[in-house]
Structures are given as C-alpha cells and as structure tokens.
Amino acid sequence: MQALGSYRGGLMLFLGLGTGLGSALISDGVVVPLELAHLSYKYGTYKDYAGLRGLKRVGLKKWRKHVADVAQRFSAALNPDDVVLGGGGAKHLTKLPKGCRLGDNTHALLGGIRLWENAERKKKKGT
C-alpha cells in the first residue's frame, strides 16, 4: 500500500526496508509485486543485507552502504523513472542514495484509498 500511495507517475520502483526487503514496480498505476529480496547477493540474498536483519548483523554504517548498492543495482536493471525507499527501516537513512526519494508509512493510507477508488471505478463500469 505504501508503494501505491507513493506513486507519482511513470515507472516507479519501491523498495521496502523492513524485516526483509519488499519490492514492487508500478507502471501506469498498476502494481507489479516483485520478489527481488530472494535473489543472490554477496554471501546471501538481498534481504540478508538490506533488511533489518542485515542492519543488526553489519551495523548502521555498512547497512546504509548495502542499501545504496542495492538501490543502484535495481535501478540499473529496471531503469525506473522514480525510486522510493520506504518501510520501517527507511528512518535509518540520513543520506539517500542517488536518484532515490524517501517514502513515508503514512502513504500506505493513500495507497489504500487509491485501491478503493480503482475498485469503485471498475464496479461502476461493470468490469
């Protein structure tokens, strides 16, 4: 919901820094859930380094570097117009990686409203 609430247009990549690493693409308002966290990265997976488990294991300074690296790698691969870093772990970022903006947990409410409005439009159209 936070991803949908953060959407401004174009192709947006959302990375949710939480217990693991949530990920989604949004294109023209359509949410495409991803499972990027489970891909191999260094000596584990992306969630092992960019999630809160990684923060506890490597410390804040190294964790921030991993988050920046992960954001850069996914941006290079997916070429989004916008990259949003959200989730509970985003509060630990003092400097955002290049090309990224900070999400906000309150955007989840807006995402829910957008989802509801879209469902209502489809209902009225009979689809």
Tally the helices: 5
Percent strand equals: 15-25%
CATH homologous superfamily classification: ATPase, nucleotide binding domain
Order of helices and strands: HEEEEEHHHEEH
Structural class: alpha/beta
Main beta-sheet annotation: 5 strands, mixed
Which descriptor suits the 3D outline? elongated
The beta-strand count equals 7
The side-by-side strand order for the widest beta sheet comes to 3-2-1-6-7
Describe this protein's structure.
The structure is a single chain. The protein has a single domain (2-125), classed as ATPase, nucleotide binding domain (Nucleotidyltransferase, domain 5), CATH 3.30.420. It is elongated and about 50 Å long. Strand 4 (40-41) and strand 5 form a beta hairpin. With 127 residues, the protein is an alpha/beta fold. Helices cover 43% and strands 24% of the residues.
Task: Provide a concise account of the structure shown.
With 127 residues, the chain is of the alpha/beta class. The protein contains 5 helices and 7 strands. The protein has helices at residues 2-6, 46-50, 52-58, 60-78, 107-125; strands at residues 11-17, 21-27, 30-34, 40-41, 44-45, 82-86, 100-102.
List the helices and strands and how they pair.
Layout: H1 2-6, E1 11-17, E2 21-27, E3 30-34, E4 40-41, E5 44-45, H2 46-50, H3 52-58, H4 60-78, E6 82-86, E7 100-102, H5 107-125
Parallel strand pairs: 1-6, 6-7
Antiparallel strand pairs: 1-2, 2-3, 4-5
Helix pairs in contact: 3-4
